[in-house]
Amino acid sequence: MAGYSDGRATPRGQLRVYLGAAAGVGKTYAMLSEGHRRLERGTDVVVAFAETHKRPQTAALIDGLETIPHKKIAYRGSEWEEMDLDAVLARKPQIALVDELAHTNVPGSRHEKRWQDVTELLDAGIDVISAVNIQHMESVTDVVEAITGVPQRETVPDAVVRAADQVELVDMTAEALRRRMAHGNIYPPEKINAALTNYFRAGNLTALRELALLWLADKVDEGLQRYRAEHNISSTWEARERVVVALTGGPEGDTLIRRAARIAARSSGGDLLALHITRSDGLTGANPANLTRQRQLVESLGGTYHQVVGDDISEALLTFAKAENASQLVLGASRRSWLLALLTGPGIGSRTIRGSGAIDVHIVTHPHVGRRWGILPRYRGGITRKRQIAGWVLAIVLAPLATLALAADRSGINLTSDVLGFLVAVIAVALVGGFLPAVAEAIVGSLLLNYYFTPPIHYWTIAEANNALALAVFVAVGLVVSWVVDTTARRTKQAARANAESELLVTTAGSILRGQGALDSLLEQAREAFSMRSASLLERRDQPAGSNRGPGTDWTVIACSGDAPVQRPDDADVDVPVSDTLTLALAGRHLPASDRRVLGAFAAYAAVALEQQRLAAAAEAAKPIAAADKMRTALLTAVSHDLRTPLASAKAAVTSLRSPDIHWDAADTEELLATADESLDRLTRLVGNLLDMSRLQAGALSLFPRSAGLDEIVAMALDDLGPAGRNITVEIPDGLPAVRADPAILERVVVNLTENALRYSPAGKPPLLSASALGDQVELRVVDRGPGIPEQDRDRMFVPFQRLGDTDNTTGVGLGLALSRGLTEAMGGTLTAEDTPGGGLTMTVSLPAAPGD
After folding, report:
1. What is the pLDDT of residue 376?
2. The pTM of the whole model exceeds 0.70
């Protein structure tokens, strides 16, 4: 823990870790050598713990260094040595050498792991130099097991080593390490052959060495990124290849991704980052199906997928690349035709190259280069077909009407007024029908203005240049207004759709997050939202993840909504993959790309809902296990005293009687035998109760019900109680009907209830056992005059081991009442508790009367 001196907090110590690929590379040797170097510089160094594995060269380095004696801990009959943490803290050196960072301490130590001991040393302001092998890093243990076939039981969290101030790789080639092994420098001779043919195979050591190098490269890269951020460095440092591939959502994306992956693979440890840039207004986008497929391809190649928002594609792309310290950019060649490129200027590729700086830019050709023709952007109308038809009708009507109206008053108005009149007609058509009808209205209007209103009249010529300019301006204004109106309508329509989609997704997401969205209702909502005939969630279970679909693939319908659920993705009209093994399939109609984007969100929600459903089922299935575990824990705690006490008493009595050093008289012998007998009887009852309760809970209790007289059963129960049973008052009337029950089981119930009544009855007020017939039931009441139990606590007293909460836990484990109720109910009866008039508790056993009585 952090200490204080001179009123100031002790600074945290620094951690230095030597990382190796395998045992024997020289980590401990390097650690001890560093200790000697620090000692020669006058630093206070101690060896807190060093494991030499009896290697002479390593053991020799300990000489000359102060060593803290190890702490000896006894465990399972053996004595173990561990680092004495308290001694190191009390010594408080400047530097402590602590070997084997991932070591698991012997039970009884302060911490479970040695790295936790190291953390406490660091908190105390002590610098630590330690060592660890790559196979003990928690993030790669599964990889190491797959390579070597040996599971790793001792691990250290990656965060502990990543937080180290220095991590130094102690490296050695596989061949050199195997030579060290063969020369006996690592293991004793009897273990060399086994090690060389198993764990220390050349392939294993090479793979472990690569893992160590890659892990350390990531650690170094983290430090580099931190340094660049702290010093506001935005220029590219090509310390490591990072390839960013720009995706537009077009069909060329697969080609670009594979090309970028090959570039990244040229250097070991290269990173592949795929980037898609969306407009900030969110109203235009790429083909979502293409992007989904391309994202899966990127991830299958070991890359990562990113999506950022920006209106300037080139600027957003370069900003992302510089932030990620990318060294190369991969873009696809433009799909614009040469004519469109000539008229619209440089494209994204050209602008990116001009601003790339030190980042290399690759322009990759693909089959779709130059396939987009046209000068103007592709027209995407925002006006409904009904309004477009109305616009065309209005254009046909307004053009002649405007001509007739303006020609009738030719002498009163000039050409400017005529142009404005036709411009009003163009705007009216644009508001109603959109761009195309307005363009036609503008062109027709310009021709009519030329023929009827521009001198010379009734000729397709224009005498004055001013009139020609007026007509040109009219056409231009008409086109611009038409485009603006149509764009506004389109954006309004898209915004309304986006708002509706957002509301739908927010509502659905809220239901999922609150756990209210059952999978079936979610599929029904998706089916209704997209007007489909059926919606099904399919899962493939017969093939491993990542395998391709085949004609023989077996799909299982997890959940469905609607008629005739789809059995296979190939049979669906819409198929949205959620993962390699999960697919949302809908039947009814084909959906446009815009709907598929929202449907993809529904597919993700369906996956979440399925996971919630399975987790809920797993939790429900775990409840009996948890209950059994709780019962087992309570049982062990409860019987810890009640088993030991009679066993100890009986053992002490028998041991005393057998002792040859003591001669007992007859009275003492009788007393000791009585003690042993009483203790064994108590133990027998306890074990019997435990066994009966376990049989009840397992449903394995055997019952043999028959007609039995209640007076006989009560008499046998009182005999079992011994002398205590003689003080009990019994009131069983003559002629009481017999009960249908298992006599032995019912006797156990009466004994347990009566013992409980005796325990709480005050002196001079013994319990009362009375019986009566009530219809086809016979009731036996056990009445005591004790303190009674509050009504709200009566159900609790029938819970097994409820005596664990009592102050007196020496008279039983709390099974008597629980077992009595269970046994009574197993015989078809009931056991209830109620107040005794005047104070106390009455336990009532109700059993069916025997037939024929």
Report:
1. 39
2. no
